Structures are given as structure tokens and as C-alpha cells.
UniProtKB/TrEMBL annotation:
Transmembrane segments: none annotated. It comes from Ephemerocybe angulata. The keyword Ubl conjugation does not apply. One of its GO terms (molecular function) is oxidoreductase activity. The keyword Nuclease does not apply. Keywords: Oxidoreductase. Signal peptide: none annotated. This is NAD(P)-binding protein. Pfam families: adh_short.
Length: 304
């Protein structure tokens, strides 16, 4: 692998000069998403449109206030609780109302919970909604803007940060995990679903780039995605462990951008330093991919 300094230089060389890029960062109010938004602003020297999508407006405003400023800078926040598909639809419409082109769609929303199956009022487990269904729906909704960017000769790339390479076998008879839910099943299924999602989107949109990444251990603040008082109390100890053994969000962001910039069209799986991992620890097949697509389209479009 190249050094981090070489990766930073490579990333800078990939920043477009012919147009002002538009980046949408779902889950960009903390952790890896925040790191990637800040890195994007830093690499472009503020010559970018950055749309931070998340739940915490106060956090977003604090992040935006610290970003570098340029004449072309446009920084925005769009409110969205991604556990509900109707919120994803509303947020997507808000983005499309102001931006007909999107160059980079970065998705890293988290949901830290130890509950069992926890359906929202739409009937979808909240953890799976955040880690998979909402991401599928954001891509589906923003495809016209991504496609228009590509048609204009610009970058058009999608990245979902979750944990590729750490998934597991899936059951096409229970894709919503309503019969076989456990925290382990939800975690591994969500990762495999993301792999299959990216492959199917790439097959249907071969001119675009779709990738899932495994960031490894990153020193993020788990309290931001904790769904109970108990977990928020446990978060500092877990954060300390991540800080001691993990990558900083800023360095992780550089690795993730390297993975995005280093790939052309198609579907890719990216490791913790932005490297391609191919089919390492891959689960699923074409038949399961099609079944998952049909299930998701029905579930998401019905829910919203």
C-alpha cells in the first residue's frame, strides 16, 4: 500500500477543476461521514457544494462553520432520520429541488442499539433501515442527479461505508429478518445486503461507480448513534478503545476517498486503506441479489 502522504497527494490530483463538485454525505454529522465531508472541503479548498444529511442540525452547523470558504462554497444541511423511508424520500426531494447533479453520494449513517427486532411504524427494523434500506432508497432517489453528472462528463460515484468483508450468508425467505432477527444476523446481513445492492445498481447503471467499504476500527464517537441511555454511558469506554487501536476519522477519510477515486465504473469492495478486496469473504449470488432487489423495492416503496 502507498503511504498516507502519497494517498493524500493522489486524492488531491483527482479533484476536478472544470466544475464545482457536489457531494452528499448521509450520516455526515459525525464519525466517518463527518471526516469525509471535511476532507472533501479541504481537498477542494472549499470549491464545492457539500450537503450534510443527518439528524443533528446543531452538529451539522458546527461542522459547516469550520469548513474552508471559497467564492464557490455552498454548504447545506438536510434533516433526516434514516430509520423512516418517508424521511429519506423527503430529504431526497429537498436535495433534488436545489441540485440537478450529484457527483458523490457518501453514506455512513449508524444506529447503535442492543435491542432485538425493533420495527419502526413502517414495519422495518430500525438498525436494518439505517444500515441498508435507507441507503438503497437514497441511491434510488438520487440516481437522476448522478446520471446527469455522468452525462456531463463529471464524476458520478456512490460509496456505502459499513463493513464489506464482514458479512455472512443470507436467507432469501426472511430478508427483513422478521423471523430470525439477532444483533449478529442484523450486522452480517446488512453488510451482505450492501454488497449485493452495489452489484445490482452497477449492473443496472453500468456508467456509474458503486462501492462498499470496510473502514476498520475508527475513533468515532459512538454516543452519537447510541439509541439508549445505557449505550451512551458505555460509549466513552468503547470510544477510548477505538482511539487507542483505531484510525482517526481524518485519516480514514483519506483512505476512503482513495478507494473512490481509484475506481472507474462498476461495483467495488474497498478495504480499510482504500484498497480493492475483490471477492474476499464475499457472500451471495446472482439469484440472491435479484431476490433482495425485488424484496427491497417492494418494502421501501410500500413503506414510503
Amino acid at each position: 500500500m502507498p503511504s498516507l502522504a502519497a494517498i493524500r497527494a493522489f486524492n488531491l490530483s483527482k479533484i476536478p477543476s472544470a466544475y464545482v463538485p457536489v457531494g452528499v454525505f448521509v450520516g455526515g454529522t459525525s464519525g466517518i461521514g463527518q471526516g469525509m465531508a471535511e476532507a472533501f472541503a479541504r481537498m477542494t479548498k472549499g470549491r464545492a457544494t457539500i450537503i450534510i444529511v443527518g439528524r443533528n442540525q446543531t452538529a451539522a452547523e458546527s461542522i459547516i462553520a469550520a469548513l474552508p470558504q471559497a467564492a464557490e462554497s455552498k454548504y447545506e444541511f438536510v434533516q433526516c432520520d434514516a430509520t423512516l423511508m418517508r424521511n429519506v424520500e423527503t430529504a431526497s426531494k429537498a436535495i433534488l429541488a436545489k441540485h440537478d447533479k450529484v457527483n458523490f453520494l457518501i453514506m455512513s449513517p449508524g444506529f447503535f442499539s442492543t435491542k432485538g427486532f425493533d420495527p419502526s411504524e413502517e414495519g422495518i427494523d430500525r438498525k436494518l433501515a439505517t444500515h441498508y434500506y435507507a441507503r438503497w432508497k437514497f441511491i434510488d432517489a438520487l440516481l437522476p442527479a448522478l446520471t446527469k453528472a455522468k452525462a456531463a462528463g463529471e464524476d458520478a460515484k456512490v460509496l456505502s461505508v459499513l463493513g464489506t468483508g464482514n458479512g455472512g450468508a443470507i436467507d432469501t425467505n426472511d430478508l427483513g429478518l422478521k423471523q430470525s432477527y439477532s444483533l449478529g444476523n442484523a450486522a452480517s446481513a446488512g453488510i451482505t445486503y450492501n454488497d449485493l445492492m452495489m452489484e445490482e445498481y452497477a449492473e443496472r447503471n453500468p456508467e456509474l461507480t458503486f462501492a462498499q467499504a470496510s473502514p476498520g476500527v475508527v475513533a468515532t464517537n459512538l454516543a452519537n448513534s447510541a439509541q439508549s441511555t445505557t449505550l451512551r454511558l458505555l460509549a466513552p469506554a468503547m470510544n477510548l478503545t477505538a482511539k487507542l487501536f483505531g484510525t482517526t476519522p481524518a485519516d480514514c477519510a483519506e483512505y476512503m476517498w482513495h478507494g473512490i477515486f481509484n475506481n472507474t465504473t462498476g461495483a467495488f469492495r474497498i478495504g480499510s486503506q482504500g484498497e480493492e478486496i475483490g471477492k474476499k469473504n464475499y457472500y451471495g449470488n446472482a439469484e440472491q441479489r435479484k431476490a433482495l432487489w425485488e424484496h427491497t423495492a417492494a418494502e421501501v416503496r410500500t413503506s414510503s
